[in-house]
């Protein structure tokens, strides 16, 4: 049973960017940032200081940077966001850093101009030799450049320490330290990581410069270990204070994920959602991948366009599970698509499964699981809960799926049904899904007899039976007795309209589809203590005897299924027989199953010996009677046949049938020509 998911707004939009202000803080990281700020305020920065903030990717290091920068206690500090990604080489990195410091100081006013000039001179001495200008060409120019290089080197060696000392003195005069933020170190190449830490090591003792570095400690230690005996020991010589980002609890991450998902779902008018399935999907498929908020963001940002595009036509649990696997196990997702004909059921592939196909299913399931790597349990869970037909290929299980179970997958919008899985992948409704949507729209009016009958009557004849079949498969325990009466009587009254299609199309099963829907509604009526009253109401509202006979036949064949005793069955059979006997021949002309009414007025009971057909019976009566004996014979789909022996029981002789043919012929109706020719073939032997 599906229901609409409860809608409530999330506390924040869920974009993948780091938070910038404390009001966006969902994980209470602001307290952690305050703690770091208090430590910064207490530092002795006379010889500089190096702080690290460490945590795995997606743990919120950049967000903590932003929260630190927003604190009032640090308003007078100079912040430098140093991005080393586009720079390589230690000298060039140092040059770039001090250029940034120079620029920040000049913006603070003329007071700091001299300090900025001294830093600029120091930077000039650090300028790589590769940037020295050259003009002209030839040997003479090269010699000239060579002399300039030698002169620069001597000047550089002599004055570099002096200039560094001058810069140090200038920096000591700063009222507040400079904080250099270097983020995403763990996203650099290994040789670039080494150069960043060389930069920090070379410049860390400048006064009033605080480095705050953010990185994944395990990854950086591994990268540094390729250049130093022990990466951790190398880091410990440089980092003076480390803060490990607090790990967000699973409950917090889950709550934020669910809240944000609900805000997305709230923008979709109708959402299929099974609360019973949610704990399995969330606990066994989604949560193992939700290590931090970034993981949650990745799933949410993928879900948002899919949910809106599908517009409530796929079960939400299935979408969440599949998108999770698509993001974190793309190879598994691709293999599921590749093997979908073995793990889905329904009209697109026509599969119900039998023991002959079990080996193929097992092979398909193994192909999917073999791509799962360390996520074996999560992939097994998605197969078990999202594609239950795949259970036929695991642990020697076997399930033969009844058509009603397949219909349930379809109505519940489960991707276990091939049509629904195609919709999820292609975002396009096929004809079957459009029919289902139409059936559900009409079903909403089931308690209003007049409106319901009008909508059914407006259906295209070719589509009518399929829409009714889909309505019959809707699992609605809340339907009232009045709704059951309205639906069942309307379906039986529409039978004469669709029977013509069955007669003219050997592949048609319109009558069967409608009677299946009737049966499903009668089963629901069984839960009502006054089921006999419901059936009596249906019997009263059915407007033709042929359809009433179909109803009585259903009740007679499966009385136990509908909870009816034999006494009631006998009573309703007799009521039908009495009504047939009291109906005039002219009125019987309108019946689509007239032959059965005369011979078998009580279904499944020994045939009656009908009274002789009145001599004044109209040509229309004869046409209706003979036409009701039409069928297809076994010699080919284009060969119609007559229930000739049965007709003889009614007419008593071929001579009487011949007289009936002449009366039909006198109607001069071109549509009767085919029927007349067929009767004459039988008369001729």
Q: What do these coordinates show?
A:
By secondary structure, this protein is mainly α. The chain is built from 32 helices and 7 strands. The chain has helices spanning 29-41, 61-69, 90-107, 113-126, 139-172, 190-203, 217-225, 231-238, 250-265, 278-286, 293-310, 316-328, 330-338, 340-343, 358-369, 376-386, 403-411, 418-426, 431-443, 449-457, 461-472, 481-504, 510-525, 531-541, 545-557, 566-581, 585-588, 594-599, 619-627, 644-651, 654-665, 673-683; strands at residues 49-54, 78-81, 178-182, 209-215, 241-244, 630-632, 640-642. A 5-stranded parallel beta sheet has the order 2-3-4-1-5, with helices on both faces. A two-stranded antiparallel sheet has the order 6-7. Strand 3 (178-182), helix 6 (190-203) and strand 4 (209-215) form a beta-alpha-beta unit. The radius of gyration is 41 Å and the shape is rod-shaped. Mean pLDDT is 82; it is low at 1-13, 128-145 and 348-356.
Features:
685 residues; mainly alpha; five-stranded parallel beta sheet; two-stranded antiparallel ribbon; 32 helices; 57% helix; rod-shaped; disordered N terminus
Topology:
Blueprint: H1 29-41, E1 49-54, H2 61-69, E2 78-81, H3 90-107, H4 113-126, H5 139-172, E3 178-182, H6 190-203, E4 209-215, H7 217-225, H8 231-238, E5 241-244, H9 250-265, H10 278-286, H11 293-310, H12 316-328, H13 330-338, H14 340-343, H15 358-369, H16 376-386, H17 403-411, H18 418-426, H19 431-443, H20 449-457, H21 461-472, H22 481-504, H23 510-525, H24 531-541, H25 545-557, H26 566-581, H27 585-588, H28 594-599, H29 619-627, E6 630-632, E7 640-642, H30 644-651, H31 654-665, H32 673-683
Parallel strand pairs: 1-4, 1-5, 2-3, 3-4
Antiparallel strand pairs: 6-7
Helix pairs in contact: 1-2, 3-4, 3-6, 4-5, 7-8, 9-11, 10-12, 10-16, 11-12, 12-13, 19-21, 20-22, 21-22, 21-23, 22-23, 22-24, 22-25, 25-26, 29-31, 31-32
